[in-house]
Amino acid sequence: MAPPVASEPVFRVRGGGPLEGTLRLSGAKNSVLKLMAASLLADGPVELSEVPDITDVPVMGAVLEGLGVTVRHDAAAGTCRLEVHDDRGLRPPADAVTRIRASVACLGPLVARRGAAELALPGGDRIGARSIDLHLEGLTAMGAVVERASDGVTVHADALHGARITLDFPSVGATENLVMAATLARGRTVIDNAAREPEIADLCRMLVAMGADIRGIGTPTVTVEGVERLTGVGWETCPDRIEAGTYLVAGALTGGRVRVERVRAGDLTLPLRKLADAGATVDVDGDAVTVERRSGPLRPVDVVTLPYPGFPTDLQPQMMVLLTQADGMSRCTENVFESRFSFVDQLRRMGADIDVDGHHALLSGPTTLRGATLDGLDVRAGAAGVLAGLVAEGETRVRDVDHVDRGYARFVERLRTLGADIVREDDGA
Ligand code: EPZ
Q1: Which residue has the least CA distance to atom 25 on ligand 1?
Q2: Which of 237, 314, 320, 331 sits at a 20 to 30 Å CA gap from 46?
Q3: pTM of the shown model
């Protein structure tokens, strides 16, 4: 492991007592970035609220500004206004596109609205191959011509037409791209084996509010009738179920009581059930969820990540931390990303007893975790590393905090609100 660069900021966490308190969260990273991309389809301004103060938002803003969109983002107010002022651009700036996965969400709207796109391969967390073949196959079925290069792809279509598409895998990004492309295609598009994540349903509802004709929202079969145009819209970003789940797991992990406001419990059915199975009490009160664990050991549970409504892969690292403290053998099966067990090595470095066999991780607990210096490998592994530090002996440092900043607004501030002993500082300090 390379020595930390002096100016490199780290999270420094000390294990301590239970987390206690209430957080009110804003919108979902994996929703807002796609809502922003949908502005490419609109004849008028798209005005978003509850926009999370995360670094991916201005990056997506830069992608869209490179495509002739005026982006007015007020991080403090949680708003973002997007309006196309020049619709001739086909090639978003590669330096922004390659930083986040969500930049791929420009592809469908560009081809549908402008007839072509020249996109560098998107970036994002290094948790697997993250191909975009399903996106491209779907657009091809709709009449697009795809030319692949080593570092990007060019897609063009004189006019997209409706098609019947069955996805090999219920890909979130491919579903979003193809639904957006289909809104302006000629005729009917039916997408079978579509992903059903709540963020996709919310995107579809916003598109309908803009004038799209979409049926089967939230189901595995989505039907889109192409329309002539889509108007601008005002829209509130849906709550971030993964961010909420992260703090709720932390409450159970530390033996405390955490209440999260502005969360849809129905989006977290399996994570909440698993926390209850592990011995926490879960209370749902309107748009607030409280997780508490006062006494008794954590019980082992099995977790299987699957596309929604299965257990979300984005809560897998956080749940793994909890399972290291459960009294017995737990199994975690990762079915979505082939490289998402890279976080296991970080936990082993702290003393966790985990055996990995392909898609399965077998965790034996409870094990005492010792503070260590961890790499914040990706958004969720970085956050989970901090959670591990909350129950470890001594101090834990988590590097690459920029990954966590991509998906968690005011992470340190919010954890400190709950009583965590955590600071963010330059590593040289
Ligand atoms: C979205 O990624 C999220 N990111 C991910 O969240 C999330 O983990 C994932 O959905 C699954 O829920 C954003 O929305 C920005 P996929 P996405 O297409 O769209 C394979 C986080 O931590 N696949 O459903 O890239 C792919 O390799 C991030 O917030 C293909 O093979 O997910 C993966 O193994 C991490 N070909 C699986 O499908 C394709 O064309 C799921 O990918 C597309 C996907």
Answers
A1: 173
A2: 314
A3: 0.96
